[in-house]
Design brief:
The protein has 15 helices and twelve strands. With 338 residues, the chain is α/β, with parallel strands linked by helices. An eight-stranded mixed β-sheet has the order 5-2-1-6-7-8-11-12, with helices on both faces. Strands 4-3-10-9 form a four-stranded mixed β-sheet, covered by helices on one side. Strand 11, helix 6 and strand 12 form a beta-alpha-beta unit. The radius of gyration is 19 Å and the shape is globular. 49% of the residues are buried. The structure holds NADPH dihydro-nicotinamide-adenine-dinucleotide phosphate and ketopantoate. Ketopantoate binds next to helix 7. Ketopantoate (KPL) binds next to helix 7.
């Protein structure tokens, strides 16, 4: 049976690794002592918005012993936040087998490239996790929204597909992962807004003022990608260019459409909210920051996303984290000059 190593076991890593282990896969989790301590002896409990409730008991290796766990891995799933990717790549390089397959299950546009550059000769694939996972504490991780994991199409995935399918996480192969990651980045522009709102995703997205903030950020990013001739895949029922039009609709129209197209439960929150809550630096540079840098490289500006970067930086330093929708919208409109 192939051995799967999850490197950076937090919300996504414990959930995906735990679901694989619960379905009988040979999984080892590598992560922080703090995470291992919260799991304790009780093992993992994985639940989802459809009512799944499974338990798993995968070995958890703390990071200082991580390289040893990688040595005999056939597949490594990288699930650290983007800031840690370079360091993880450097850790993997001397210990990873030549025939091992590495899949980045991270947000942002650059993580698989960073891993690939540090791991020459290895198969390194970009992945995209569309659903939300919240760490409920005590080893419990909850998938609060829908979607299938998408991965760069590659024959080396074949030996692992049955394990993911058995775990209830079938892989969707794509031959346009750059465009998929850009589409996911458009959705992740909400991470900053959700983190600044300080409320669950469902509650935030049910308020038009927050959705208008997201529409401003998405339109700006969409235009920036278009100006760069960078395609954007369709990863949601609605094409990416139409999402801002839905977002600005009155609450009851949005609720009626979103209710049919996006299953999301009341506890789901963005990973950026989790970072602020835990006092960690966020992935803002890898999400809204990507838009700002791309715009600059084209001689353009992206003032809404630049402002969201600044507000998250301020929140990381202890600044406001309970913005009302109206206040945030007014602030972003001022920044955009519109
Ligand atoms: N949570 C979600 O709902 C979703 C998240 N994603 C993406 O998935 C990725 C993972 O997110 P998420 O699971 O939320 O992140 P978490 O912060 O919950 O988990 C990552 C874990 O990796 C640990 N870590 C960092 N560096 C190392 C290292 N060198 N060795 C071992 N462990 C390390 C972190 O510790 P420490 O905190 O000390 O750095 C943390 O415990 C991100 O790119 C995120 O954007 C995508 C879709 C949804
Ligand atoms: C699932 C989604 C879009 C929102 O929670 C996410 O990717 C994140 O939280 O980072």
């Amino acid at each position: 049976m192939p051995r799967i190593c999850v490197y950076g076991a937090g919300s996504i890593g414990c959930y995906v690794g735990g679901r694989l282990a619960a379905a009988g896969a040979d999984v080892v989790l590598v992560g922080r002592e703090r995470v291992r301590a919260t799991i304790g002896d009780g093992g993992l409990r994985l639940t989802d918005y459809l009512g799944a409730d499974v338990r798993a008991d995968a070995p958890f290796v703390v990071d200082r012993d991580g390289p040893g766990a990688v040595h005999d891995a056939d597949l490594v799933l990288v699930t650290v936040k983007s800031a840690a990717t370079e360091q993880v790549a450097a850790t993997l390089a001397p210990v990873l087998r030549d025939d091992a397959v590495v899949v980045s299950l991270q947000n942002g546009l650059s993580n698989a490239d960073v891993l690939g550059a540090a791991l020459p000769g290895r198969t390194v694939l970009a992945g995209m996790v569309p659903f939300n996972v919240v760490n409920l504490g005590g080893g419990a991780f909850h998938q609060g929204s829908e979607g299938a994991i998408e991965v760069q199409d590659d024959a080396h995935l074949a030996p692992y597909e049955s394990a993911f399918a058995a775990a209830g996480l079938p892989l969707k192969r794509r031959d346009d992962m750059g465009a998929v990651l850009r589409a996911k980045l458009l959705l992740n522009l909400n991470n900053a807004i959700n983190a600044l709102a300080g409320i669950p995703l469902k509650a935030e997205l049910s308020q038009r003022a927050y959705r208008r903030c997201l529409a401003l950020a998405q339109r700006e990013a969409y235009e920036t990608f278009r100006a760069a001739d960078a395609s954007i895949a369709r990863v949601t029922p609605l094409p990416p260019g139409l999402i801002p039009r839905l977002l600005v609709m009155p609450d009851r129209v949005y609720a009626a459409v979103a209710g049919k197209t996006l299953a999301i439960d009341p506890v789901a929150r963005s990973s950026m909210w989790e970072d602020l809550e835990a006092g960690r630096t966020t992935e803002i540079d890898w999400i809204n920051g990507e838009v700002v840098r791309l715009a600059q490289s084209l001689g353009r500006t992206a003032p809404v996303n630049a402002r969201l970067v600044a507000l998250i930086r301020a929140a990381e330093a202890g600044g406001p984290r309970a913005w009302s929708g109206d206040d945030l919208l007014a602030d972003l409109r001022t920044a955009s000059g519109r």
